[in-house]
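Quick one, T. Sequence first:
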Amino acid sequence: MSKHGRVLVAMSGGIDSTVTAMMLHEEGYEVVGITMKTWDYANSGGTKKETGCCSLDSINDARQVAVDMGFHHFIVDIREEFGDYVIDNFVDEYLAGRTPNPCVLCNTHIKWHALLKRADALGCEFIATGHYALINEREGRKYVSRSKDLQKDQSYVLWGLSQECLHRSRFPLGGYTKPQVRQMAKDFGYEALSKKAESYEICFVPYNDYRGFLKRRVPTLEAEVAGGNFVNTEGEVLGQHQGYPFYTVGQRKGLGIALGEPMYVTEIRPESNTVVLGRAEDLVRNGMTVGGVNLMKYDRIPDGLEAVTKIRYRDQGTLSRLSNQNGKIEVEFLAHVKGVAPGQSAVFYEGEDVIGGGIIHGSSSLN
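Structure tokens:
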């Protein structure tokens, strides 16, 4: 019988998930490793050597650690489930003129669901991942908080986790910095692992080229959407673009049009294949509507609650006032915010704690 129970650890073969498994094993948990095969690099249009969490090398790395440490390791193929939900949603959102966040969707609807299902089958009370975040509790509710390493903090992408997921999850790395984790890998005897590079790509989009991915996924797309108009904020035609799905709100570079001054995508209108361009000040918003809300720290947000709202992963956050409106959250920014993109995640913080989050549906300008 283990000291702390039986835990299923998601192992990608990378340094974070590997050190997670090692730490829990050393602490006295009965560790079971699992590596999830979510996609095929070749089918996504990759031409270089396959790398990352789904490569054969990474799977073998995860298995070898399990052999070295003396615990079980399983490989689970969830490519069909992942593709049907995450990739189809990714394509559909761009076709709707929005900018999706597939990592959030994958965490919420695929990875944790798959982990809990296998944990139950294998008799594991807990699941663990290598995310940099902390889990805390208030009045019986679990919630995510920022990690010690704010540069690596991943609380933003975990806003969608349910109470069931949170009550059974463990994030051992939340109290450590990345350099400390690299040192732990060395201390465990894995010098090469401690130097392993990290990938910041969306796992199924080679080279971060989402436009190329969309074209391969929908072969007729390029011909169907080419030739739409760039217009300014007054509706005047400025030129033609390559198709509205290939642009995102806030984009400045790669527009393919010279107007004598920096211009940004301020709005995408898929119904007319129109991309609106404006100056930097035209990106400023004073509020937005957030739907698909999942609350963590509280079971309900009181109207008028002030919180720091992040609208993208690297956003520093903006002090905001929140209110409930027909099942959605209305956000009033208390400072100017630029580049609010429908489809992205909005996450609400109280100090270091995640109150909850949702998907940006729309925004309101200062005018």
